Amino acid sequence: AALPARVLASAIAALETDDSVYLLENLSEERKAEILDLLSNVARAPVEKGLSYPEDTAGRLMRSELVAVPPFWTVGQTIDYMRTVEGLPDQFYEVFIVDPTFHPIGTVPLSRMACSRRPVLMGDIMDDEQTLIPVLLDQEEVAFLFDRYSLVSAAVVDENERLVGVVTVDDVVNVISEEAEEDILKLGGVQDAELSDTVLTATRRRFPWLLVNLFTAIIASLVIAQFEATLEQIVALAILMPIVASMGGNAGTQTLTVAVRAIATKELNPANAFRVVMREVFVGGNNGILFALLMGATGWIWFGDPALGAVLAIAMVINMLAAGLAGILAPLALEKLKFDPAMASGVVVTTVTDVVGFFAFLGLAALILL
Fold first, then answer.
1. Quick one: pLDDT band at residue 1, thresholds 50, 70, 90?
2. Reduced to 3 DSSP states, what percent helix, strand and coil does the chain have, rounded to the nearest 5?
3. Higher pLDDT pick, 205 / 92
4. Domain count, the chain
């Protein structure tokens, strides 16, 4: 049974803003309003402010509980203030230095404060360089900044660059985990999958991408249909066709997985795209040659026909090259077009490897063996 609203409100009032928002954002609007009405004005205001920001942005991650002091305060004044003020976070890593308009101008790590004498001015020991996070920045970009600059916390600012909150590394760890899980689900053509989903809900979520896969399978079948006469004359081709398509599909999936991850972590970008594409072409070509030698010999020994082995080998090289190109170019193109590479790339790569594999294998067979 659901907990009474009064119990939840009491628990939320004791939490920091980021945790309160995290608990409330997935509740129904009616339930959320009921709990918020039970909070005091002081407790409700920052939570409502956090919930007002779009989902998956820095505003939803941040907490409003922080320590911000002017640069002319001394270390002693700051310590005395932190000892007496209410509503400070249980754990924090630095004190923010702000100007009279509440713009952050620097930070002082707690460790540096602990090693400084009480009369020292906070402005004299602050770090001028800081990473400011816009309140509407996507949480994936926030995680990227934390990783790139090895941050443990960062100031969140509004459109006027006034300090409104702080994001800490514990929240970012959760984001990284959520984004990785989301990418894995999208590569499999599903979203927000839960074991507790009803049969109808799971069916509705998976059906659209299965329908897309059906259309791509029909495209591959249409390619095969163009070589019906060839297949009737050489039955061995039907036996070997799945090998060509399967190897290309697996190679494309490997490249695709690496590319999607590299795009998500900003390792793959327009500056190095050409070099990465050429690398994948060479990787696909090398693997294609190795498997061409293996499968060419297998086809020759299996069916006693060196020409058939040669056709299989050449088709393998062509499809492995196509797989490498599709695996890297598809996510890059989708990213450029503002589509999610993790969601749509798999269908594109599968279609390319199936169509190219079947066309190359059956086309070469028609040219060489007939």
1. very low
2. 65, 10, 25
3. 92
4. 3
Over residues 182-227, the pLDDT tens digits come to 766 666 666 655 555 677 877 877 787 788 888 888 998 998 999 8
In a domain, 118, yes or no: yes
Q: Residue 63: inside a domain, yes or no? A: no
Same domain, 174 and 243: no
Outline where 25-157 has alpha helix (H): 29-37, 41-52, 58-61, 75-84, 110-114, 122-125, 139-149
- Please give the distance of CA 239 from its chain centroid, rounded to a whole number: 39
Contact by Cβ (8 Å): 74, 122: yes
Residue pair 80/140 in contact (Cβ under 8 Å)? The answer is no
What DSSP line would sit under 111-129, residue for residue? HHHHTS-TTSBHHHH-BS-
Domain containing 19 equals 5-52
**Tens-digit pLDDT profile for residues 257-296:** 888 888 877 788 878 888 988 898 899 889 999 999 998 9
| pTM (predicted TM-score) | 0.68
Q: What is the CATH number of the domain that holds 149?
A: 3.10.580.10
269 and 349 together in one domain: yes
Note whether 235 and 334 are same-domain residues. Answer: yes
